[in-house]
User: Which sequence fits this backbone?
């Protein structure tokens, strides 16, 4: 069995260390063996088998931090769009995959999944923003990364949502005074608005499935 390498992108946005720990735990429980590294080195990212783009924070500051690291965006584009490496974006990591984000003005994203990141606006004004805490996801289509997970309850912390141009990219939705996309996918690209690393057993199982996933 080939050892696989997973690169967790280190661009100084939030929960990168807890995400790395959760992926290491998932690796230990998966059928795969290999290494998990927290890195901002473009060469290491291009050479890795799989990539995780985690994050917590505002779209503007996170995209500026990512694009401010020499060669990082170019390495991610090559790994994801040219070499078709499986990638998982978590929270702001998912949002950065959009065409544009509208937090603090309009800012260009990575444009891997066409769409915009716009404010979460629950119809029930009693519901506070940010949406913070546990909530159910409603599967819109089957995806291998969600196979054999007994719970559909995951942990969220966000004030913005990903509104994709192509609704076929929506894997699951969640209701918080309005329906929003809670996970999206396209070919080798996958992202979750919720935090698997904060979602206990269900989150570890999802990360394990990502490690074993061959798109």
Assistant:
């Amino acid at each position: 069995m080939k050892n696989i390498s997973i690169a967790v992108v280190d661009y100084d946005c939030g929960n990168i260390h807890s995400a790395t720990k959760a992926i290491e735990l998932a690796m230990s429980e998966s059928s795969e063996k290999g290494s998990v590294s927290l890195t901002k080195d473009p060469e290491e990212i291009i050479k890795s088998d799989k990539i995780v783009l985690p994050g917590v924070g505002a779209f503007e500051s996170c995209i500026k931090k990512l694009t401010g690291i020499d060669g990082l965006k170019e390495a991610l584009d090559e790994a994801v769009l040219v070499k078709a490496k499986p990638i998982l974006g978590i929270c702001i990591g998912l949002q950065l995959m959009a065409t544009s984000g509208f937090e603090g003005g309009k800012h260009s994203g990575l444009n891997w999944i066409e769409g915009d990141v716009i404010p979460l606006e629950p119809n029930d004004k009693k519901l506070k923003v940010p949406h913070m805490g546990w909530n159910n996801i409603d599967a819109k289509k089957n995806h291998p990364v969600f196979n054999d997970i007994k719970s559909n309850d995951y942990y969220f912390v966000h004030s913005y949502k990903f509104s994709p141009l192509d609704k076929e990219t929506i894997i699951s939705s969640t209701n918080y005074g309005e329906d929003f996309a809670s996970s999206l996918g396209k070919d080798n690209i996958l992202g979750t608005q919720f935090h698997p690393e904060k979602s206990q057993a269900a989150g570890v199982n999802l990360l394990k499935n990502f490690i074993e996933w061959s798109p």
